[in-house]
Each structure stands twice: as structure tokens, then as C-alpha cells.
Design a protein that fits this description.
The complex is a heterodimer of chains A (158) and B (594). With 158 residues, chain A is α+β, with helices and mostly antiparallel strands. Helices cover 43% and strands 13% of the residues of chain A. In chain A, helix 1 packs antiparallel against helix 2. Classes of the chains: A alpha+beta (158), B alpha/beta (594). Bound molecules: flavin mononucleotide, iron/sulfur cluster (3 copies) and FE2/S2 (inorganic) cluster (2 copies).
């Protein structure tokens, strides 16, 4: 999804940059704060950060693209993350993803047209005892079968 | 005034996500309503380990162990257990087939020994007072006021502690390298990147007992002469991060962290640095590059971080679990620690026991415990009457162990000698429904995605191995592929720059070794005995068993099952996507897999 929205440096981000500005190796921490503020790393902000920190944009993008955690595109309003750690994989994590792809009519690592849901696969979230698990906006659903998924999605559908 | 009862509520990730916090609040509310708030203390603790049966609530001193508790159960726990002094029978954990509850009979805990997890599930991780009440910061006091750096090293060496991050390097020796060097600046770093995709030992330790790691890092600073430290932790662990931050603030308030610790001339402070989802950043040189704000790519060793680490300065880097052992080694002595474990591997090991196992959870056992004891005594065996097939240790760097190796005592050296490795502590049990080609493919897929691409043997080798495995899983493999994979694996082991590429072939090689017959079946007979490799299975309906209930037809996502009510159904093979939904939904065993 292309975003045309304008983004401005928030006060919280500005304060954070000020605090970290002179610490060596600050870039990754500042990118984390950026993603916390906007849900992803908007291009205009990346450019602005480059100026504030006096770091070439290419280096910033080099770092963003190396780390899976950073997102370059705006995620859906509701973020579904299906665990594909070993325990969840063995207990059917892949079936959950397939069924969600069906239900939402999108592929993994993408966002629905209306921006309501995005779907991603993640690694172990530390709840292997409840495998297979997924999270929606951070809330964990465990011991799932594909039959449970329509109800989970419905909970977040407007 | 001491309270009469303690109610411990699990606040570990698994239980917390299953309404742990609501249970905690309901208990507080019920205690208030029933007028017993002054008779008890309700504590939210770290993981009890028995996550499978969570959420868990424990009442002391009665030793009542309640499992699968719901917020509504709070009323009974307070009115029965606290007010009337009798346990709530329906919530108590009972061994299979037993009607009675006896705390000492819980098999899950009988063979465990908790050193690393000594406070996990016992104290409130957000309270430094509770940590101190359980002898916390006693090791630090000893290190500051009684021991010289050399004596700290001596205790560590006597303890026999080896690194728990995977490689098993002796910790005392590692510290001594950094201690010996004269430098204007040294660092202490904690590796909390926990990259194994099926493991959560470090996370549980940090969530349940953050002070134990902080205390150890201060001791390390004192020993090697460092005044700064960093904890590199995955951003995916928000609860652990929060608890670490709280613990660090508390330690600063008490003068345990910061300038002039406990009035001495020793100063040390800590910072949290967040990982960003790259497995290779668990490798120590890549991790240090990441803290420096760069792309996390490994560099060749030597020089080792002990001599040239963070920002080029001598750096002690250890894993979370390694650190968590250290405060008690210092306070109780290296000899005490060395009483546990085997000749070459002292102490205990924490494992995340998961997969096809009845009691999935977090366990800590003395080194030397056998796999059989873990899988069948602690883990309770395989659920649903299925047959044990293998146990995988060492994650993407490790291997599978078959029934023949169940009596192997677990330690660093014995696991390597039987073709796997200790790894960081993931232990995944597989049953007859798991296909070994599929499992190897899963790990390779992980390595393809996580290879940083810096060196060719790993970048290309992981891809090639994955492609061959995919081919085999589609029934298109050839006999020569086996040798090809073995040769390629050996080449990767020798020529890759870092541990990721050097160990990436292990899961495949160990499957080829232990399950050759099953791999050959895929190649020669186009058959997947576990029914996992979709291209090799076919679903059909047995006319004589099908009663025409229509359930499967309604479940099929592509509507390729037809048939009238009460008449045997038929699958249109040309449209079947082999999802297995029909097989799972037929209550009459009429759907066949072949
Ligand atoms: C690809 C790769 C990933 C690693 N991941 C981790 C990890 O997640 N956690 C960890 O503690 N060590 C990890 N290690 C091992 C570290 O490089 C290092 O040996 C360890 O942090 C040393 O601490 P220890 O001596 O206390 O084990 C990894 C190594 C490699 C090669
Ligand atoms: S072995 Fe793999 S992960 Fe390690 S440096 Fe080479 S390409 Fe990167
Ligand atoms: S669910 Fe089983 S019994 Fe029912 S129609 Fe399908 S195959 Fe026949
Ligand atoms: S396996 Fe799936 S697609 Fe094939 S017939 Fe059964 S339900 Fe339909
Ligand atoms: S593997 Fe999914 S939560 Fe651990
Ligand atoms: S999270 Fe509660 S027992 Fe593990």
C-alpha cells in the first residue's frame, strides 16, 4: 500500500533523539523509537533523521533493511502475527497462516486493501506450551485450530 | 506482622496471555471483598515452568498447586483455601489416573533442580526486596568486600561453569582473558538475543528474575575492571525489557548500580540495547556490531571479543543463563556448584521442552539427566497415544536424536558425541506424525532467511540444501542427492565464516544419518510415511466406511468433495489441495491418507 500521508517528527521522537544523539551506536535505538511512534519507518522521517544525526540516508536504509523487525510500510490497523517457531510449526502453524490468507484474501506479509488487517509470520513468542499460537495487536491466542480463526478475526472486524 | 498465606500467580508470558493478570486482579478483589486482605500476600511471579497447564496459582504454605485457573476461580480460592483453610479440589493438579493431590508427587518437578530458575515462580520480579530476601546481591557484596578479582576467577573456575549460549566455553577462563588486559575502557555485555526459533529460556529468566542477571554483570564488571555494560535483548520481548528496566532503576536507587557501588570506589552502570529480529545477531561479533549501530554481520575471530570487543575494547560477553548462575556461585562457592552435573559439565541446564509432549514447559535439570527422564518422566511422554520418534536439540544448529539415544546423559560433550549439540536449550519432541524431511526443510528455510549473506558457502549452501530438500519432499529427489547434501554440508562446515553457516547443515546431516530409510522412501517410493509432504499424499474416501454425513464436504476449502446426504462421498483429485481438512473432520475414519 502506498502512503501519501505526511509525517512530522513527534515531540517524543525529538526528545529521544536529543537524549541519544551523542551516544555511540544510537541509530538502532532511534529507529526503534521511530517505529514505536509511527508503527513503521516513514521515508520522510528517515530523511529527517539522517539530517538530525548527520548520517547518510543510505546507511539508515542499510540498517533498516538488514533487520527484519523494521517495517518500511504502514501495517494494518490490526496486526496478526502467526508464530512459525519450531513448536508451533510442528503443531500446525502453517495451517493457521493458510486459513488466515483465505479468510483475509491476502498473502502473508501483506495488508488488506482497507488497511484493517496485516498478516505476518513471526518466530517463537515464548508461549510454546500453548502452540500453535498467534497474536493480534500483541494479544495472544493459543491452542488454536483453523476452526477458531473466523471468530478471532470477527472480534476485530468493524 | 507476617502474613499467613502467600498466593503466587504466574506472570510468565504464557500464563499472562491466558488472563493471568485478570486472575491476579480477581484474587486481590476477592481478598478485599471477603475481608482477608491482611491475612495474605498476593504475588505475581515469573514462569513456574508448567506452562502447558497454565495459568497457574500456588498457595503457600499449603503447597496447593492450582492449574488452568480462570479469573472466576478466584472467589473459590479465597473463600475455600484462605478463609476455610481447605484446598479447592477441582483446581488442584493431579497426575494422570490419580484422584489425590500430593505436592511431592508432581512428576513434572521431581527430577528438576532449580539453580538458574531459583527465584522464578517464587518472587515478584518487580520487587528488589523480595530478591534480596532470597539472598540476592549477597554474591555482589562478597565480590566487593571479600574477594579479589583473582579469587572471583578462582571460584568460577572451581565451579566448572561453561557458557550456556551454545558453545560451552568455560566462563572463568573467558573472564580471565579480559581481566589480564590493561585497557582504559572495558565492557560487560549480556547476550539476550535468544534466536533459536523454538525456545524461551532466557526470556523466562529475565521475566522471572531480572536481578540475577544484573547482579552477575556487576560482579563481572568488578572482576575484569569494566565500568559499563549493555544488555542486548530482542525487541520482541517487551515484558522482559520492562522488568529489566524496573530492576535496573531499583538497583540504582539502592546504590547497587551507578557510581561508588555500596560506598566503594567501584562504579558500574548498565544500558539496554534492543535487537531487531536478525538471528545472526546472536553471534557475538555480529551482536557487538549491532550495538555499535551497524548492520549485524559477523567478523572473523580472532581477535576474540575478550581482547577486542565492543568499540574495539576488551569485552566480556555471556549468555543470560550463564550470568544467572553466577551470583549463587559466588555466594555459595564454586565447590557447591560443582556438586551438580557431570565430570565435564557442571550445574544444571534449562530447557524449553516443547512439541509433541504432554507436559510442555520450561524445565531445569542437573547436567547428566537422560533424555528418557526428560521426555517420559518430566514431560509425561507423547500425547494422544502416538509413538515417540525423535527429540531435536540445538535448534537450527543441532540435530535429531532417536529412541536409541534416549539414555544418553545430557551434557555438552555427550550430545556432540551422538551427533547433536546442547545449543541454547530448545528441546523439541517429535512423534510419528512428523516427517523428518519436512523438519530438516524447516530449519534450512530458517537458515536461508537468516544467513547474512556475507560469505558464499553459507549464502549459497543453505539455499542449495533447501532446494534439494524441497525436491525430495515433492518426490523428485534422486539417490545422488544424499551424497551431494553430505558433501555440501561438510564444505559449509569448513568454509563458512561464522557459526551460523558452520552449523546450518547439522539438522540435515543428522536426519540423513538417523533417518536415511525415511528419506529414501521419499526418493524411491514417492512416499511420506508421516503424511506431511503434501505432494506425496493422496486423500480418498473409503466407500464402505463413509455414511454420507456431508461434514467433510462442508469443510473442504475448495469444494472438491461431492456426494448426496447418506451416500458415500467422493474426492475430485484434480482439484484437491491436500489441506487435510476432510481427514481431520471425518468422525468415522472414512477418509484415508496414502
Ligand atoms: C548464529 C549464532 C547465533 C547465536 N545465538 C545466540 C543467542 O541467541 N544467545 C546466546 O547467548 N548466544 C548465541 N550464540 C553464541 C554467542 O556467539 C556466544 O558464544 C555466547 O553469547 C557466549 O556466551 P556464553 O559463553 O555465556 O555462552 C550464537 C552463535 C551463533 C554462531
Ligand atoms: S556464515 Fe552465514 S551468517 Fe555467518 S557470516 Fe557467513 S553468510 Fe553471514
Ligand atoms: S465426513 Fe466422513 S463419513 Fe462424513 S461424508 Fe465425509 S467421509 Fe463420509
Ligand atoms: S484434502 Fe482438503 S482440499 Fe482435498 S478433499 Fe480434503 S478437504 Fe478438500
Ligand atoms: S514456537 Fe511458537 S510460541 Fe514458541
Ligand atoms: S508462563 Fe506460567 S507456568 Fe510458564
Amino acid at each position: 500500500m502506498q502512503t501519501t500521508e505526511e509525517y512530522k517528527i513527534t515531540d517524543a521522537l525529538a526528545a529521544f533523539v536529543e537524549e541519544w544523539k551523542d551516544k555511540p551506536g544510537n541509530l538502532i535505538m532511534i529507529l526503534h523509537k521511530t517505529q514505536e511512534e509511527y508503527g513503521f519507518i516513514p521515508r520522510t522521517i528517515a530523511i529527517e533523521l539522517g539530517r538530525m544525526l548527520d548520517v547518510p540516508l543510505a546507511k539508515i536504509y542499510g540498517v533498516i533493511t538488514f533487520y527484519h523487525f523494521f517495517k518500511l510500510e504502514k501495517p494494518g490497523k490490526n496486526q496478526i502475527a502467526v508464530c512459525m517457531g519450531t513448536a508451533c510449526y510442528l503443531k500446525g502453524g502453517e495451517d493457521l497462516i493458510k486459513e488466515l490468507e483465505n479468510l483475509l484474501s491476502i498473502g502473508v506479509n501483506s495488508t488488506t486493501e482497507d488497511g484493517q488487517f496485516s498478516l505476518e509470520a513471526v518466530r517463537c513468542i515464548g508461549c510454546c506450551g500453548l502452540a500453535p499460537v498467534l497474536t493480534v495487536n500483541g494479544e495472544v491466542y493459543g491452542k488454536l485450530s483453523t476452526d477458531d480463526l473466523p471468530a478471532v478475526v470477527a472480534k476485530y472486524t468493524e | 506482622m507476617a502474613v499467613k498465606n502467600y498466593v503466587l500467580v504466574c506472570g510468565g508470558s504464557a500464563c499472562e496471555s491466558a488472563k493471568g493478570n485478570d486472575i491476579y486482579k480477581s484474587l486481590l478483589h476477592q481478598a478485599e471483598v471477603q475481608g482477608v486482605s491482611n491475612d495474605l500476600q498476593i504475588v505475581k511471579t515469573g514462569c513456574f515452568g508448567f506452562c502447558e497447564k497454565g495459568p497457574i496459582v500456588k498457595v503457600l504454605p499449603d503447597e496447593a498447586f492450582y492449574v488452568e485457573v480462570k479469573p472466576e476461580d478466584a472467589e473459590d480460592i479465597i473463600s475455600e483455601n484462605i478463609v476455610k483453610g481447605r484446598m479447592v479440589d477441582r483446581l488442584l493438579y493431579k497426575e494422570e489416573g490419580k484422584k489425590e493431590y500430593k505436592p511431592e508427587n508432581i512428576k513434572f518437578y521431581q527430577k528438576q533442580k532449580r539453580i538458574v530458575l531459583r527465584n522464578c515462580g517464587l518472587i515478584d520480579p518487580e520487587s528488589i526486596d523480595e530478591y534480596i530476601a532470597r539472598d540476592g546481591y549477597l554474591g555482589l557484596e562478597k565480590a566487593l568486600f571479600e574477594l579479589t578479582p583473582q579469587q572471583i576467577l578462582d571460584e568460577l573456575k572451581k565451579s566448572g561453569l561453561r557458557g550456556r549460549g551454545g558453545a560451552g566455553f568455560p566462563t572463568g577462563l573467558k573472564w580471565s582473558f579480559t581481566q589480564r588486559i590493561d585497557a582504559d575502557q572495558k565492557y560487560v555485555v549480556c547476550n539476550a538475543d535468544e534466536g533459536d526459533p523454538g525456545a524461551y529460556m532466557d526470556r523466562a529468566t529475565l521475566e522471572g528474575d531480572p536481578h540475577s542477571v544484573i547482579e552477575a554483570m556487576i560482579i563481572a564488571g568488578k572482576c575484569v575492571g569494566a565500568d559499563k555494560g549493555a544488555i542486548y535483548i530482542r525487541a520482541e520481548y517487551p515484558l522482559a525489557i520492562k522488568r529489566l528496566e524496573i530492576a535496573m532503576d531499583q538497583a540504582r536507587e539502592r546504590g547497587l548500580l551507578g557510581d561508588n557501588i555500596l560506598g566503594t570506589d567501584f562504579s558500574f552502570d548498565l544500558e539496554i540495547r534492543l535487537g531487531a529480529g536478525a538471528f545472526v545477531c546472536g553471534e557475538e561479533t555480529a551482536l557487538l556490531a549491532s550495538i555499535e549501530g551497524k548492520r549485524g554481520m559477523p567478523i572473523p575471530k580472532p581477535p576474540f571479543p575478550a581482547a577486542k570487543g565492543l568499540f574495539g575494547k576488551p569485552t566480556v560477553i555471556n549468555n543470560v543463563e550463564t550470568y544467572a548462575n553466577i551470583p549463587v556461585i559466588i555466594s555459595k562457592g564454586g565447590d557447591w556448584f560443582a556438586r551438580y552435573g557431570t565430570e565435564g559439565s557442571k550445574g544444571t541446564k534449562v530447557f524449553a521442552l516443547t512439541g509433541k509432549i504432554k507436559n510442555s514447559g520450561l524445565i531445569e535439570v542437573p547436567m547428566g539427566t537422560t533424555l528418557r527422564e526428560i521426555v517420559f518422566d518430566i514431560g509425561g511422554g507423547i500425547p494422544n497415544g502416538k509413538k515417540f520418534k525423535a527429540v531435536q536439540t540445538g535448534g537450527p544448529s543441532g540435530g535429531v536424536l532417536t529412541e536409541d539415544f534416549l539414555d544418553t546423559p545430557i551434557d555438552f560433550d555427550s550430545l556432540i558425541s551422538v551427533g547433536s549439540m546442547m545449543g541454547s536449550g530448545g528441546m523439541i519432541v517429535m512423534d510419528e506424525d512428523d516427517c523428518m524431511v519436512d523438519v530438516a526443510k524447516f530449519y534450512l528455510d530458517f537458515c536461508v532467511e537468516e544467513s547474512c549473506g556475507k560469505c558464499a558457502p553459507c549464502r549459497i549452501g543453505t539455499k542449495k540444501l533447501y532446494e534439494i530438500l524441497s525436491k525430495i519432499s515433492q518426490g523428485k529427489g534422486e539417490i545422488e542427492d544424499l551424497q551431494k547434501m553430505k558433501d555440501m554440508g561438510q564444505a559449509m562446515k569448513k568454509a563458512s565464516l561464522c557459526g551460523l553457516g558452520q552449523t546450518a547443515p547439522n539438522p540435515v546431516l543428522s536426519v540423513l544419518n538417523a533417518f536415511e530409510e525415511e528419506v529414501l522412501e521419499h526418493i524411491n517410493d514417492g512416499k511420506c510415511r508421516a503424511g506431511k509432504c503434501k505432494d506425496l499424499v493422496q486423500y480418498s474416501i473409503d466407500e464402505s466406511k463413509c455414511i454420507g454425513c456431508t461434514v467433510c464436504a462442508r469443510k473442504c476449502p475448495v469444494n472438491c468433495i461431492s456426494g448426496d446426504r447418506k451416500v458415500a462421498h467422493v474426492i475430485d483429485q484434480s482439484r484437491c489441495v491436500k489441506c487435510g481438512a476432510c481427514y481431520d473432520s471425518c468422525k468415522f475414519g472414512a477418509v484415508l491418507v496414502s
